[in-house]
Amino acid sequence: MPEGYLPIFIYLICAILFPIVLLGLAKLVRPSLPGQVKSEAYECGIQAASNARGRYTVRFYIIAILFVIFDVETIFLYPWAVRHQKLGWFGVAEVTVFLLILIVGYIWAYRKGALEWV
After folding, report:
1. What is the DSSP letter of 106?
2. d(Cα 33, Cα 38) in Å, to the nearest integer?
3. 47 SS3 class
4. Which residue did the predictor score with more confidence, 80 or 46?
5. Total H helices, total E strands in the chain
6. Residue 9's pLDDT is what?
7. At residue 6, what are phi and psi to the nearest 5 degrees?
8. Would you say residue 43 has pLDDT above 60?
9. Which CATH code fits 3-112?
10. Strand, coil or helix: what is 50?
11. Distance, first Cα to last Cα, the chain
12. Mean pLDDT (whole number) for 35-50
């Protein structure tokens, strides 16, 4: 085994053991007093009017996922904006293709009705 990998293995072992040891230590130290009051949705003294575990429509999750997916485009545009002078026209072509793919994705999502709230 090459000696260059030894620090990586030590780091990996520490990264695995650290959370395990801390979670085990926390379980030993913390108080555990389960009861009826602790199991309620709110502990502010007001009785819950309904079940706290309401159902959300699937559209909410679809909008959230679409926002995350299409908002990540700014992360990919940032390196191009920093180096756009050195990339020249090749960089412009790459970004144009990237943005066209995103626009096609937006159009597809719009036609499928994924962007409608109702």
Report:
1. H
2. 8
3. coil
4. 80
5. 5, 0
6. 93
7. -60, -45
8. no
9. 1.20.58
10. coil
11. 60
12. 67
Q: Which two tokens stand for residue 117?
A: 């709230």
DSSP the chain: --GGGHHHHHHHHHHHHHHHHHHHHHHHHS-----HHHHSS--SSPPPSS-S-PPPPHHHHHHHHHHHHHHTHHHHHHHHHHSHHHHHHHHHHHHHHHHHHHHHHHHHHHHHTTT---
User: pLDDT tens across 10-23, in order?
Assistant: 999 999 999 999 99
* Rounded Cα gap, residues 40 and 42, in angstroms: 6
User: What residue spans define the domains of the chain?
Assistant: 3-112
Q: What are 85-116's pLDDT values in tens digits?
A: 888 888 889 889 988 988 898 888 888 887 77
Tokens of residue 3, six digits = 């000696």
- State the helix-helix crossing angle for 58-71 and 73-82, rounded to 10 degrees: 10
Residue type, 84: H
pLDDT digits (tens, 9 = 90+) for 51-74: 666 677 777 777 788 788 778 877
73-82 and 84-112 helices, crossing angle to 10°: 160
CA torsion through residues 71, 73, 78, 81, sign: negative
